[in-house]
Amino acid sequence: MNLSPLQKARYAYQPKLPAILCQPFDTIVPVLGAKTTPEADADAIKKLFPHTYGMETVTFQKGSNKNIRKPLNVGVILSGGQAPGGHNVISGLFDALKKANPENKLIGFKGGPSGIIEDNAVEITADFLAEFRNTGGFDIIGSGRTKLETEDQFKKAQASCIKWGVQAVVIIGGDDSNTNAAVLAEYFKNNDSGIQVIGCPKTIDGDLKNESIEVSFGFDTATKTYSELIGNIERDANSAKKYWHFIKLMGRSASHIALECALQTQPSIALISEEIEKNKTSLTGVVEYIANIIASRAAKGMNFGVILIPEGLVEFIPEVKVLIEEINDLLSQKAEAYALCTGVEEQFAFITKNLSAQSATVFTILPEGIKKQLLMDRDPHGNVQVSRIETDKLLIEMTGNKLAEMKKEGTYVGKFSGQNHFFGYEGRCAFPSNFDADYCYSLGFNAFFLIASGMTGYMSSVKNLAAPAAEWVAGGIPITMMMNMEQRNGQMKPVIKKALVELDGAPFTYFAAHRAEWAEKTSFVFPGAIQYYGPAEVCDITTRTLALEQTK
Ligand code: FBP
Fold it and tell me: Is 85 in contact with 440 (CB distance < 8 Å)?
């Protein structure tokens, strides 16, 4: 591997841990809290997870632990989209395993969940791991999006574990991957295989969160990376004063990334999907909102600005949401007939014919490029691939048309020139910020304690994250408490409920109170690049979201 100077320097970084995990291992014990129930669909979840339903939360505290040094082989899987810090979860898990007993082994299943099914694995040794510490990416063992759901897959997973002598598997993933973890844990328990499964909360999207999972890892670094880029574009816009930049930001359905970047950079406009859904704003309504702000800035001589657009926006515009749901069902229920269509025109005709009248009308008015994007393959979990829908271009086109109308009516005097951007992959493999480096290392270290305490079907939880690392609280929560039943590929399935932006939460409330001023005046903030070395107020700041959520 060719190494950059920063990469070499980061190898020497020693991530911080919660104080409790720095104690001698035989003085750390799990303390059980209250039994848990999911917020919705409790009966259905209980039926599907009879062995792992309703377990207690866990916190690690000081005590006497005689079992901690018993020999252990653990498997690890990286699952789903990359998120900065994955290598540090593995480093934390490895270091804790070896500290407990140098004979312990860590086995990496390669290429995501398919690695455990196909028995594609490698032993992670100290030398092998050394090149990956405190670096971004998932390239140490690779990742994938295979869904673990069939009896055959479970049997093969069990066989791989037995072959490698693995007594526990850590699945590092987002909501869908941790749903896999819960299903696998239940299968192993039902089978008396003795194999434990622990999940770790990963996703730049920030939509895997609750009281015990304050943030998923990667969100901090990804939003800081995007905010640096947005700030640079704001500065360019403010210098040239001739473009409106429409920036689509990754994040799947939830708008956490767009909201966090808005809080960091104070753009002229930021759309928040959850608000648009609540207000039932139509696509034309969204375009009018944007066009009115552009017109009002133009009246003051400001023919420039920056607009943040969450990746999942179209799924929240009521009429487009219904359209997408109908297309999802159609593509799974009439897959064979659809596959017989030759060419795009026939596909469009097939879809239009089988949609409800309202959805057919919406589908017809969309630009051809967007129609094609709505019909693209779903991911293995049945999700429409929103990162491939070019909402930024759609909005530039529709806003341009609206402004042309307004010009004719005399309500807009100005020049409109739109530039589109999509920031997503740029942030997923950045060197983890100090926060993510520490948080991920702690999540992995903590996962070892959950395993050594005999837990299964739990997610590693490290909380109180707005405080210094020494004050973080380490423990675990049963994955089933985060689940509900949702329709996937036309069937009701148990899944972890996605946490969307709360419109009464502190981050959105702050944004809503300031956005009119950011639209009216130019109030851009330029955060600059992530800093790894230097004063704590620059290097160790958490996201604005976390800071606002945890302000007492
Ligand atoms: P996860 O939910 O697996 O963490 O993935 C996050 C994400 O980056 C989304 O923001 C984005 O929509 C999606 O992955 C893109 O998927 P892919 O990597 O398959 O293009």
Answer: yes
pLDDT greater than 90 at residue 368:
no
Whether 148 contacts 157, CB under 8 Å: yes
Report the pLDDT value the prediction gives residue 382, as an integer from 0 to 100. 65
In ligand 1, the atom with minimum distance to the C-alpha of 203 is: 4
> Does residue 527 line the site of ligand 1, with CB under 6 A?
no
Q: Is the CB of 174 under 6 A from ligand 1?
A: yes
**Ligand 1 pocket member 78 (CB < 6 A):** no
pLDDT digits (tens, 9 = 90+) for 60-88: 999 998 888 899 999 999 999 999 999 99
392 as an active site residue: the answer is no
| Cα–Cα nearest to 265, from 522, 539, 84 | 522
Mean pLDDT of all residues belonging to the chain: 94
For residue 83, give the ligand 1 atom closest to its CA: 4
CA-CA-CA-CA torsion sign (227, 229, 231, 237): negative
Query: Token pair of 473, please?
Result: 């609280």
Helix-helix angle 219-240:434-452, to 10 degrees:
160
Q: Whose CA is nearest to atom 1 of ligand 1?
A: 81
Q: Of 462, 466, 469, 461, which is closest to residue 552 (Cα–Cα)?
A: 466
The reported pLDDT for the residue numbered 167 is 97
DSSP character for 431? Answer: P
Mean pLDDT of the 286-304 span: 97
DSSP state of 82: -
Sign for the CA dihedral angle at 33, 34, 35, 37 comes to: negative
The answer, yes or no, to whether any atom of ligand 1 lies below 6 A from the CB of 252, is yes
pLDDT at 515: 98
pLDDT, one tens digit per residue, over 331-365 is 888 889 999 999 899 999 999 999 999 999 999 88
Q: Which residue has the tokens 């007594």?
A: 167
CA distance 276 to 253: 12
415 CB burial (10 A radius; 0-12, 13-18, 19+): exposed
Nearest CA to ligand 1 atom 7: 81
Ligand 1 pocket test, pick from 177, 252, 315 with the greatest ligand atom count within 8 Å of Cβ, gives 252
Longest dimension (CA), the chain: 80
Distance between CA 52 and CA 499 in Å, rounded?
A: 22
- Contact 523/425 with Cβ under 8 angstroms? no
With a 6 Å cutoff on the Cβ, whether 180 touches ligand 1 is no
**pTM of this structure:** 0.94
